Amino acid sequence: MEIRNIKRQFDGESVVDDVSLKVMPGQVTCLLGPSGCGKSTTLRIIAGVDMQDSGQIYVDGNLVCDTVFRVPPEGRSIGLMFQDFALFPHLSVAGNIAFGLKGGIRPNRARIEELLSKVDLLRHIDSYPHELSGGEQQRVALARALAPRPRIMLMDEPFSGLDNRLRDGIRDQTLEVLKDEGTAVLLVTHEPAEAMRMADEIALMRNGRIVQQGAPYNIYNAPKDRAAAAFFSDVNVITGKVKGALTETPFGQFLTPGVPDGTEVEIVIRPQHLRIDFDRNGRGPNPTTTDGVPARGVVVRSRFMGAESLVEFKMDFDGSILKAQVPNVFMPKPGTALWLMIKRDRCFVFPKV
Questions:
Q1: What CATH superfamily classification does 233-351 receive?
Q2: Which helix (H) or strand (E) holds 17?
Q3: Tell me, what's the pLDDT at 164?
């Protein structure tokens, strides 16, 4: 599937602004971004339940929609799966899955049983939606959407209604079924962890536009700007001014090649890449290492998060708050003075906006 230069406005306000995207068979692409950024509108346009103001949509190289020609939703070979599952309460599991198939249950029994086996629900073939758990209903909705063998599967926040304890297992099972069917998948989500877990490619969306696109590893480790970095995790920000391709900070000098002198920059570092030491010269590295120069901070509070601890520091140099994420249990008392160092090779440097 390919969408080219899709635009959509409501009341003169641009909601989808020149969005282009390709999704290949067997590939899961996540359209990731905050609420209101245009993700669901993009999905609705692809599905054919909304109409773009300009741009084209192609499936298998064939035009299915522009501003003049339009294939109806049922003719696009596109499956839809939404937050509320939208199962028919008066139909059995088999009836729900057969709904989009010609002839009903009897001639499609083999396909229905095949899909229910894949989602481990064959024993519930004659059950009704109200007799199933939320996770089971989600899997029935998946089977129903896949039953007609769509070329493309559109999924709009399909796991948001599930209990956190079930969500990871259902995501993994869903991904396995989708890969097995070889369907091109476009998944809309506002959760970075979900996108990282499921996607072959992430398209990060903001204010109606795709601002960055790539493999999860690349988009996480090479964000385009501060907002992109901050969308995936908490970040610490240190500011400075460039002089001679260097930026001087309380943590030492940072290389900023190609940035004009006098430019204000933001050095962005994730909490897990701050190192904590108990004194300035004891166990910490010297200023020539990649961790740079130590800077003193005072513990404001610390919290145990399960697999790690999060410690907040008020820094001596400007009173700002920096957060450090530490494996396991580390709970220093408020008022404890400690030294922080930054892993320079894990920093991102952006011009200050």
A1: Nucleic acid-binding proteins (2.40.50.140)
A2: strand 13-22
A3: 78
Please give the CATH topology (third level) of the domain spanning 2-230. Rossmann fold (3.40.50)
CA distance 238 to 242: 13
pTM: 0.89
205/19 Cα distance (integer angstroms):
9
DSSP structural state of residue 199: -
Sign (positive or negative) of CA dihedral 337, 319, 225, 37: positive
Asked whether 255 and 324 are in contact (CB, 8 A), the reply is no
How far apart, in whole angstroms, are the C-alpha atoms of residue 323 and residue 230? 13
Cα 258 from chain centroid (whole Å): 31
Domain ranges of the chain: 2-230, 233-351
Q: What Cα–Cα distance (Å) separates residue 331 from each residue in 166, 296, 305, 334?
A: 30, 17, 11, 9
CA angle, 54 then 58 then 62, to 5°:
125
Query: Binning pLDDT at 50, 70 and 90, where does residue 121 land?
Result: very high
Helix (H) or strand (E) holding 228: helix 226-232
